Amino acid sequence: MLKNYLKVALRNIKNHIGLSLINVIGLATGIACSILIFIFVRFELSYDNYYENADNIYRVAVRASIGDTKIHQTYSSAITFLKLLEDFPEIETGVKFLNLENTPVSLGERTFYETNFFAVDSTFFNIFTIPLIQGTYNKVLTEPNTMVITESTAMKYFRNTDVIGKVLTADIPYGTDRVDFKITGVSEDMPDNSHFHYDLLVSSTSFPSLINNTGWTTNRFISYVVLKKSTSKAEVEEKLKEFTRKYMGEERFDAWVARGNYWEYFLQPVTDIHLNSDLNGEFEANGNDIYVTIFSAISIIILLIACINFMNLSTAKSSLRAKEVGLRKVVGSSRHSLMGQFLSESVLLSFISLTLAILIVELIMPWYRTLLGKQIDIHYFDNAFVIPSLILLGLLVGIVSGLYPAFILSSFKPVTVLKGRNRDSKGGVWIRNGLILFQFTISIFLIMGTITIYQQLKYFQNVKLGFDKEQVLVVRNPGSLGDNVTQFKQILKNQSGIEAVSGANTVPGRGFINWGFRAEGIEKNFTLNTCMCDYDFLKTLKMEMMDGRFFSKDFSTDSTTAILNAKALELIGWDDPIGKKISPGTGPQQFTVIGVIEDYHYESLHQKIRPMALFLSEGHYQYTEEYISIRLNTENVSEVLRNVETTFNRFAPNMPFEYSFLDQDYDNLYVNEKQTRKMFMIFSFLAIFIACLGLFGLASFVADRKTKEISIRKVLGASVPGLIGLLSFNFTKWVLISNLVAWPLGWFVMNKWLQNFAYRIDLTVWPFFISGLLALLIALLTVSYQTIKAATANPVDSLRYE
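-> structure tokens emitted (802 positions)
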């Protein structure tokens, strides 16, 4: 029987090659889209779930309110971590990270600035079970001044992985001398689907003054704990409330809370961090579970659109096979056997489409990896679920696509169809039109989403940031210059093409240190983000003063002065801040406020501007300038860049010159949104392509069936434009109605998406109008060829034998 089904199926495909080709291309495109989105979604959901004890690993994070300042951060203190291990029998073990980002590491005369560089406890590999190529898990990081590097790092420095016992030298920021670290282990590279990546790890015991620090506010570490398997996260978090109260002092804590403050530790499952965390101190930019949900839905919807094409075309051409069905029933075929025949044809087309879809996926996979910036793959043969899943997908698509047409075709009555009286039922026409409505509703929604995301990103580019990020070169490793930083800056200021030069411990888009403060005449405590900068910071970034003045060499007292931003002034509540004093923490040092700077977006537009204080980098704290910003005023950027590098190499001949441009760094804060826009645009186009493919096939079929009707209308005087309009309207009216369904859906979803941003566009009617008009034009263009061809045909040709 199956052999017979296959023969008939192949014969039917051959007899209706045009419609079959449209079905195959539409299904293949839909399946390919679904596979590509599924790969992305599966990758996003797979973050950090490959550790042996992944379900029990948690990151310790903080949410707090001090006065009017809200804190959400990953950082906690060394003493916090120690006391957690002591006080909680529910905790099996733990590890803490100290970030050593931008540390120069040397091997002889070769030096690299390492970004993914951390000091960790010896328990690291017991928790994060990354395979070691060389070394023993329990021994690699137990001794001070020992190091583990990844396979790729070993190849970079030594060009092989046989490096146990060899030494790398690092200029650690928490010491005055260069430190030699002996390599005790080589690990595999961290997988892409990890919320953090390392290239070098050193033992935390190398920094006894830091890991033994008993200050509860010295929040430098990111800590992870492993809970025992029988332990409830909720129970531990409940006990954490008493933990904070115990060590802060119960009466003092209660009084502090009574004034509206709070400080809470909470646990983040390591497998949830990538999609559900956006705290201060994240290792890397995380994803977003909203995007995963949206693209999962798009994957299913695009596949449905492809299936709908199949259903529409199959039911539309049902009259072509009506006599075949009638004859089969007359000679004894049952309805079940007929349904089996038509479903087998559908499944056959589905598997042909699946094969083509896999070829499409493989062809565009390199480009897709570049788009996502991730090394994703399908893994056909090293994952036991992939091949069965693809087979199941082929069956499912074939059955879903073919079930309704099979039901319709097998229901024909022999007497009716053999007399030639079979016609489309009103119900069948309504169902087909309803399916067109669904297809274009989704297409319009996707166009609308693409336009809205584009507008939001355009808003990011054009919004007044409070500083000018264009034409600013950032030198990222001025620490290599040693004591020559000031001289380096002075030489650059005198070079052509350079307008201003400034040093600071941070720049917009980078992390900021948060300190607790007190203010003169104000009872409440509060926190401020801090920036340590030099005299030219304002000029270089083109920021503006709101009140008072900026730091100046003309005032010797500026070493103990501070500048607030407008949000800090609002937080403190001063009417006249100039001359008043603020004090960090509980220390005696006071800083006189000499100015108020206009608010500027030093973080991404996902967040509202937070209160900030600026201090002189060469003042009381003598902070290291970790970034040098150079404002250019020339179109010949490459020449200025060469001059800056030459000057840098004069003072640091054996050090790499690390640089970036501020506008690119700041725009990278929106990498998820850019990626989403590209994917929305691509899959919007493909959804419309699939819908139009079906519409083209349907228009071709309907135009063919209406040939005699059109000829008679022409004989009776109907004009060509009138006939084109008549034929087009039958299809495009459903596209117009689709707008009424898509617009409310688009408004709800995109409004929800925009709530992720503290600063965002307002939804207007234009994205809705443009998306609807664009879909209508595409639909008209799709059916225009067939309608014009039918309307301009010679009536003699179709009525000759009537």
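DSSP finds 25 helices and 25 strands in the chain.
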